[in-house]
Amino acid sequence: MLGPPGAGKGTQAVRLAEHFGCADIATGDIFRANVAEGSQLGRIAQEYMDRGDLVPDQVVISMVMARLAEPDCTRGFVLDGFPRTVAQAEALDQRLAELGTPLDAALNFEVHEDELFRRLAGRASALHRSDDGEQTIRHRLEVFAIKTRPLIDYYAHRGLLAMVDAVGPVEQVTARLLRCLGEDPALVAV
Ligand code: AMP
After folding, report:
1. Residue 124: its pLDDT value, please?
2. Do residues 11 and 127 lie in contact, with contact meaning Cβ atoms separated by under 8 Å?
3. Residue from 67, 95, 129, 149 carrying the catalytic annotation
4. Rounded Cα distance, 56 and 37, in Å
5. 79-131 pLDDT, tens per residue?
6. What pLDDT, on the 0 to 100 scale, is given for residue 121?
7. Do the Cβ atoms of 165 and 90 come closer than 8 Å?
8. Which of 24, 31, 131 to mutate to test ligand 1, by most ligand atoms within 8 A of the CB atom?
9. Which SS3 state, helix, strand or coil, does residue 23 take?
10. Are residues 107 and 164 in contact, defined by beta-carbon separation less than 8 angstroms?
């Protein structure tokens, strides 16, 4: 899943993983759990997360590669928040080529920036996320534009990109995503 912070990737990743009975790998959640545990990975990640910067590629890539080797991933997986840079996408391609399991799709969540800001500010007060302060939100949106947006072209060139209107009721967005993945939302509970 590709898309800026606040686009609803986390909410939809849970729903798609449930639908397909596959693993849901959310790198932000893994980092937050490590910060809460006080692990070494958490200590490394925290300063980047608090600033709204990306955690360095080597750290993220080795974490995700280890996660992909866990048994629940053999049935497939939804990736939420990874890859976020071209280097991460290349590492993922290489691993998937080794496993002989190509990506089915890269789903790009489209949401206007004003709406993102509104959603992120709401989440900041609801969830007390330390990276949802106003300055940090702006910075995270800039980081997305510079580092992650190039992945839209990356996956378009590979014929894997689907653009999804991510504004509207949660169920409707899920139905749009399922349609992009070749499922018939009318026949499934979303
Ligand atoms: P998220 O919950 O996906 O918005 O991620 C929260 C924060 O975790 C991001 O702002 C980054 O600091 C870090 N993070 C999550 N995924 C990645 C990634 N793929 N690459 C680098 N940093 C990441």
Report:
1. 65
2. no
3. 129
4. 20
5. 999 999 999 999 999 999 998 889 999 999 999 988 888 888 787 667 666 66
6. 79
7. no
8. 31
9. strand
10. yes
Confidence at residue 133, expressed as pLDDT on a 0 to 100 scale? 76
Read off the pLDDT of residues 19-34 as tens digits, 9 standing for 90 and up: 999 999 999 999 999 9
Q: Which residue from 121, 24, 9, 136 is spatially nearest to 70, judged by alpha carbons?
A: 24
Distance from C-alpha of 44 to C-alpha of 35, rounded to nearest angstrom: 9
Angle at CA 72, nearest 5°, toward 66 and 76? 90
Q: Say what the pTM is.
A: 0.92
Looking at the predicted structure, is the pLDDT value of residue 10 above 70? yes
Find the 156 Cα to ligand 1 centroid distance in Å: 22
**Ligand 1 lining (C-beta closer than 6 Å):** 5, 27-28, 31, 48-49, 52-55, 60, 81-82, 84, 88, 131, 140
